[in-house]
Amino acid sequence: MAYTITYTVGGTSLVLNGYDATLGMTVNYLGDQGFGMASLHRITQRGPLQQGDSDIDFRLDPRVLQVPLFIDATTIDQHYAARARLLAVFTPSNVVGTLTVATASFSRSIDCTVLGGLSFDVDAKAGYAVRAVIQLRAADPTWYDSTPVTLTLTPSIAGTAFAIPMAIPLTMGTASINSTTTVTYAGTWLSYPIITAVGPITGLTITNNSTGQVISLGAVAIPAGTTYIFDLRYGYKTVKTTAGVNKIADVTAGSNLATWAIVNAPTATGGVNSLSITSSASSSPAEVTLTYYTRYIGI
């Protein structure tokens, strides 16, 4: 069965459990630490006369991953070539890399930065072999399926504008969006999606009926030829056009822009998310799509 572990950063990839073509040597994977459930802490509060406390919520902590490696070099040149290759890939920087574990049936990735581990302490009895424990830090401790999911949430437009035959043809009525899509989410952690809305659409409202969370533009119209991109990922939370114009002011004050998400069980029973899209008016080529990564608390 195919099984690979790779680390990719800045367009460079290193195989961590097999033959690395750039190095021309085999990297031996000796196990891992920190790949399972992310550590977390509970948020509690206690009243002045309260016995025990009140459990309010929890937060995941950043994840530290460790990958011990062994490269069986047979000459001093191979020894230092292996060290140079590891240092080139795992050089400390603020550029985020991606650690990916893939089998024949799934591929899971996590974004991280280098924390350390490449001290290359040499044991003379080991000959020219290179041993290292790669340490990586994932600020977002959740893994995600390497292939994103994209859904079209507007399969049909309810109502159609119609023409009245007169000396001068007159079009009456407007089309509107009224669509509900059910997503059975298989992840074990919630996912903040990117929603793309292509005009013309007036009064767009996007609702996750399973959580009650709403994003609404009120009476604002997205003109024909304009696309709004709602980037709900943590650290972004932006609403912009494809030209980069900030449209977050168009979102109503009561919207759940910060917390709108595709949620997992048990928050949504069975992981079923019922998503509704409505508008007061629209016409072709109006379309709303949603793209997300299926995320996991651990692998």
Give me some keywords for this one.
299 residues, mainly beta, Elongation Factor Tu (Ef-tu), domain 3, Jelly Rolls
Would you summarize the structure shown here?
The protein has 299 residues and is mainly β.
Q: Can you put this structure into words, describing what you see?
A:
The chain has 299 residues and is mostly beta strands. The chain contains one helix and 26 strands. The protein has two domains: 3-141, Beta Barrel (Elongation Factor Tu (Ef-tu), domain 3), CATH 2.40.30; 149-296, Sandwich (Jelly Rolls), CATH 2.60.120. The strands form six sheets. Strands 1, 2, 3, 4, 7, 8, 9, 10, 11 and 26 form a ten-stranded antiparallel β-sheet that branches. A five-stranded antiparallel β-sheet has the order 12-25-16-21-22, with no helix packed on it. Strands 15-23-18-19 form a four-stranded antiparallel β-sheet, with no helix packed on it. β18 (205-208) and β19 (213-216) form a beta hairpin.
Draw up the topology in text.
Layout: E1 3-9, E2 12-15, E3 19-20, E4 25-29, E5 40-45, E6 54-60, E7 63-71, H1 76-89, E8 97-103, E9 107-116, E10 130-138, E11 143-145, E12 149-152, E13 162-164, E14 170-172, E15 178-184, E16 194-198, E17 201-202, E18 205-208, E19 213-216, E20 221-222, E21 227-231, E22 238-241, E23 272-278, E24 281-282, E25 287-292, E26 295-296
